Amino acid sequence: MTSVSHSRFPTSGEPVGFHRTALTVTGAALKRQAAALLDNGFRVALVAGHDDGDILRAIYLFTSPVDDRRVELHVPLRRAYPHLPSLATISFPAGRFEREMRDLYGIVPDDHPLPRRLVRHFHWPKGWHPMLKNAGDPPAFGDTEGPFPFRTVEGPGVYEIPVGPVHAGMIEPGHFRFSVVGETILNLKARLWFVHKGIEKLFEGRLPADAIELAERVSGDTAVGHTLAFCQAVEDALGLGVSQDAQRIRAVLLELERLYNHITDLGALCNDVGYGILNAHAQRVREQLLRLNEMVTGHRLLRGGIRLGGASLRRLPDPEQLAAIGADIAEIVTLALGHSVVRDRFTGTAVLTTQQATDLGTLGYVARASGLAVDARHDHPFCSRGFARTQHAHTDGDVLSRFTVRAEEVQASVAMITQLLDDLDDLDVTREPVTTGADTEPGQVRSGVGIVEGWRGTIVHRVELAPDGVLTRVKIVDPSFFNWPALPVALTDTIVPDFPLTNKSFNLSYAGNDL
Q1: Cα–Cα distance list, 417 to 254, 260, 425, 462 (Å)
Q2: pTM to 2 decimals?
């Protein structure tokens, strides 16, 4: 037997948090339990390895939009033989999480169809798993496992184009290897994790309040999304209730973050097809939004606005200013889509079909552009102000769809912020909203989950706290972890010159992926 039983683990269907139940299962029962959840409309939201000292543990978190349900499967494992059956044949995202868990914790998913390493690069020494408690400092480079086994494509006229990992401009490292005939892409492999930073390890041993600044920097353009998910997870673990005013303020900050990032991408997409003047106007609007962010929170990237148990603002944004910005963006979009060259380059380029998006587990605007109704603002709401799903005009999965989904979400965000500001009209922002109470039990190990629709898509954080209140484990899932595999799929049978345009239409985070 590879799994163990232990009294400290949750029993059958034990409530452990907000809308969340947990069940300890054996390795033999894992696949059966997971298949039942997937068949009932759940998705794999997170898989996390844990080092509990005497044993290891794997946690599979499944979520459902029906009643915001969350189910955890805990699998205790013997340190001497930490093996469990792989779920890769029934869930592609689960298979990638398992590869990550094997690299970082040494937990082996048996019968995995693609057992090659994911996070570990050739210079990582054999047998060193950095998330284990006894891992110690990184050993000297030496006994390596050889180069990454890229898929070789052969045939008449086939050649390779390597790009990166070092790129021009302000961009993080990633290696793209194209196999092409003429200009047509036959196969693309994206190799990431060149800057694995050990972010999750840095959370360990900190008090939650001392970890806020770290959460804000998981991915610099998603300070609100990641900080809010982290705070929600800690609040879930500690039983902290948050006032409705604070929840509304959090929702305002989340939409402000969506606005400045979406207009940046809309302009960059125009620039990639040679319409530089619209990019200049988009950057002008972005600067207006960044200055608005600084006025609201004191920071251009909205850092400092989210805190445990609430939110903190200097002042509320001006609805009239937001309306003017929304109209400005609408005009930029109209000019872009009214240009025949722009529309021609966008239409039908790098299509990600609905079935492909579903199989890969894509999230955010990438999923919605392919016709999937996936949005944590609706599926896992935290604010009393209801979120109405945006009806998108184009869901064909091409660059045009990913452009128009962003444009439509800009207008939806402006409308949502305006509604929230009506609710907050009498709020004294100089007096920080307070929690509505807490139900904590000293001396007890607690866990919590936070789910937020960041501007790229659904962000999930799961935390565990020791009896003394310090963090013992923080697992972070950025939507880019789910969406990176979709980029090569969408680029199949496109042409090499369309790669920059397609890549920008996805705009995936290296930092959020390379934790």
Answers
A1: 9, 13, 12, 28
A2: 0.94
